[in-house]
Protein: site-specific DNA-methyltransferase (adenine-specific)
Organism: Psychrobacter raelei
Amino acid sequence: MKLIQSEYDKLEDKEAKQPFYYDKRDSFNKRDVSSVEHAGLFIFLNRAGFNGLYRVNKNNGFNVPIGSYKKPNFVFEDVILKASRLLSGVDICNISFEGALKLANEDNPEGLPTFFYFDPPYKPLNDSSSFTSYAKDSFNDDDQVKLKLVCDLLDEQGHQWLLSNSDTTNFDVTNTFFDDLYEGYKIERVKASRNINSKGTKRGQINELLIRNY
Ligand SMILES: C[S@@+](CC[C@H](N)C(=O)[O-])C[C@H]1O[C@@H](n2cnc3c(N)ncnc32)[C@H](O)[C@@H]1O
């Protein structure tokens, strides 16, 4: 990361930085580097790319353009080492949310109560904020309902869960999609800063939902 930092800092302006950024993006998508370097490229792209956005095309290729940061920082050893310590002994499973049921049951022979935090793709607030797809498969209202059914089962089995999502009443008070769907559970509205919005003037505070069964 230190090498990338010093090379990037030497490039004077956005025009000079562009070929460097897109070259690293190509390399990230081709996976023509070691896994450690690939992780480093992810940090670089996340910090130098537009608004820290993560988005891929239909072929699963990262396609976020370069951002306009004056001097992004790619080196934060302390944070990486702390994350590494916290994650040691942790299993990261790349599975669909339905897999939570298996984790709670088959993979939990002692039947210990388990805590689940669900952070699914947010339901869009209006037509123009239709960004729900971080990956090539989108997440629609049917998926939101399926996730709720998983939450019901976990609840019946004595597990605890917390779920975050957008508050569809922000711009349309009559759109009570989640209030209706999760009726009977605890629904809290919290203020959240929205950083990812193509229109800078539309950044600011908005309500989001925290829904839980405990
Ligand atoms: C709001 S983001 C979560 C961000 C994450 N909590 C973080 O802090 O980086 C929603 C995530 O849900 C994932 N996702 C989409 N469909 C899914 C599914 N069927 N099961 C599990 N995860 C899914 C997306 O790939 C995306 O990473």
About this structure: Residues 96-97, 119-121, 134-135, 139 surround S-adenosylmethionine (CB under 6 Å). Residues 43 and 61 are 16 Å apart (CA to CA).
